[in-house]
Amino acid sequence: MYFFDLHCDTITRLNTGERLEPGDRSLRRNGAHIDLERMEGLSWCQCFAVFMPDGLRGRAAIDYYEQSLRFFRTQLAENKDRIVQVRTADEILAAVKDGKCAALLTVEGGSVLAGEPSRAAELAADGVRMLTLTWNGENELGSGADMPGGLTPRGVKAVEACEDAGIIIDVSHLNDRGFGQMADLARRPFVASHSNARAVCNHRRNLTDEQFMRIVAAKGLVGLNFCTHFLSEEIADPPFSCLAAHIEHFLSLGGEQTLALGSDYDGTDVPSWLDPARKVEDLYQLVCGAFGQALANRLFFENALDFMKRYELAGEG
């Protein structure tokens, strides 16, 4: 089994020490959802997000990002026997075949640009491969799911700058107005890295059918989120059947080549049967049983890797 996860907050959680014991901040071994020792033996690509708080602006945002980047690089250096930073589809495949975690650096929150879309080129040089334009509040680029506005003029410019720099645009957390603007602007495939189906669970962070079909049409990617609140409105510890309902719904909309996984590990509460992250092996068996191994392989790895290849080719045109 190969596993490709489009979103986790593990680096930020370890960096801040949130809900962890003092000193429990190593990626190798910790009390968070993800650590390298418990994931040993898994062929695995992980998108590690630097979470940017909504309120940060200007130099404070840059400083926060740069400190987080240093922490990420330190963790990679201390665990180079088990993990390596990657940027391309070929590098991902080489790393997982070598038995290492393929680490893709992403950023959750457009405040990282400090209001300057041109900073996208600097992020790309750091190896950032994906940017979630907003979190739930507001930043210089636009409004998230909790706010009424859409993309700002700077947000429009940031979309273009990121695409030019080869940074994938992530629409998870954008509100509906911002999503529509982004989808109209996009010249390259884009993703919703950790979002589910609103028709199944009516949460504003989930995708409408129209939004999902726009991502399908753009040859984009949607990562299924393990967050309990996005899986079910009624069940506190949602069983596999709740996640399966989201899969079934997206498949009914033509999502066989669009669906992937975006766990949100270490950024939210997940069902007990998916905690810790190593339990994705159990999920794989459940998906195989319900939908067949071919679909499970697409969902767990192949669709995400194929997306990376498509995105790279789109940049060559």
Automatic annotation (TrEMBL):
InterPro entries: Metal_Hydrolase, Pept_M19. GO terms for biological process: proteolysis. Transmembrane segments: none annotated. SUPFAM superfamilies: Metallo-dependent hydrolases (SSF51556). One of its GO terms (molecular function) is metallodipeptidase activity. Gene3D superfamilies: Metal-dependent hydrolases. It holds the Pfam family Peptidase_M19. This is Membrane dipeptidase (Peptidase family M19). It comes from Anaerotruncus colihominis.
